[in-house]
Amino acid sequence: DYVEYIPGDLPLVISAGHGGSLRPASIPDRTGGVLFEDRNTLELALRLATALEERLGGRPHVVLSHLHRVKLDPNRELAEAAEGDPAAARAWWEYHTFLEAARAVVEEDHDEGLYVDVHGHAHPIPRVELGYLLSAATLGLDDAVLSAPAQGAASSVRNLVRPGGHTLAELVRGPLSLGARLEEAGIPAVPSPAHPSPGEDPY
Q: What pLDDT, in 10s, does the model give residues 120-135?
């Protein structure tokens, strides 16, 4: 019961790997890497799934790790994630097996879909930080350089960057970006048109 998979029917997979609170004594504490939890991310993932069901009439697939991050970090390679503990390693494998199962269902039912991995942060600026697999330094580039093919290929939205379509800069911080939509709803976000890059701020 360390990992939970809630099957859905939408072409969307939501995961939260760092919000668990279970600290079983049978699993030793990890000594390396990040050890604090991303507070409220499990709750956020579940509330998001419920809101989507109410709005769209279908549910996303949801995968949750209930182990505290001091016991397991499922977003790291196995050696760092479980530090050799067999029970933690099994939970790591279950987490990734459930993600793969959800992905396979989405591909079979819808051909393609979206994966959202929910995280939290303790940075001093209260805003949503959208990752896209882009560093703060990369987001600091001007739009022309950010939209070069090499940058787009490294981003998690690379499949949305197509010749003749939107550029990477437009997708991550343009007027139709997720950051723009969040800011329109009164939720500060980076990257977005108002905050195209975090600059020197933690990110």
A: 888 889 999 999 999 9
